[in-house]
Amino acid sequence: MTIKILHLTLKKKWFDLIKSRQKKIEWREIKPYWTKRLENKTFDVIKFRNGYSKESPTIMVEHRGMIKGSFQGKECYGIKLGGVLSTNRNFYKVEGSNKNYGNKLKENMEMIRNGKKQ
């Protein structure tokens, strides 16, 4: 199984709110760039990075779907967030990928889907 990951970079304020599970939807304004990246696409998880450095903190969050709505007076895509699956470099190897995600991430996703992890 290949895990489909949406990679997004955030400012610290928003990163911390998602990490603490206070923010449940990540909004992106409907523009050609985001339409191309998000419209008619499916993802399993979202990898949020706080900054552009290789050492920047990261979190993996379950992707719960997309909505369209208005946020701060603008039409936006709403990326619905599930549980936090892992933080920083807490990842394992996924089959067929040179990235470090994998079995532990899959286990965490299953636990969230079965209601055993918030």
Structure notes:
By secondary structure, the protein is an alpha+beta fold. It has one domain (5-113): Hypothetical protein (Archaeosine Trna-guanine Transglycosylase, Chain: A, domain 4, Roll), CATH 2.30.130.30. Helices cover 22% and strands 36% of the residues. It is built from three helices and five strands, in the order βαβαβββα. The chain has helices spanning 12-19, 32-38, 103-113, and strands at residues 5-9, 25-29, 45-49, 58-71, 74-87. Strand 4 and strand 5 form a beta hairpin. Mean pLDDT is 82; it is low at 90-101.
Provide a quick synopsis of the model.
The chain is α+β, with helices and mostly antiparallel strands and 118 residues long.
What is the global morphology? globular
What is the third-level CATH name, the topology? Archaeosine Trna-guanine Transglycosylase, Chain: A, domain 4
Helix content: 10-25%
Strand order, biggest sheet?
Answer: 1-3-4-5-2
CATH superfamily descriptor: Hypothetical protein
CATH architecture: Roll
Our count of helices gives: 3
Number of strands: 5
Please render the helix and strand layout as text:
Elements: E1 5-9, H1 12-19, E2 25-29, H2 32-38, E3 45-49, E4 58-71, E5 74-87, H3 103-113
Parallel strand pairs: 1-3
Antiparallel strand pairs: 2-5, 3-4, 4-5
Give short descriptive properties of this protein.
5 strands; 118 residues; globular; Archaeosine Trna-guanine Transglycosylase, Chain: A, domain 4; single chain; 3 helices; 22% helix; five-stranded mixed beta sheet; alpha+beta
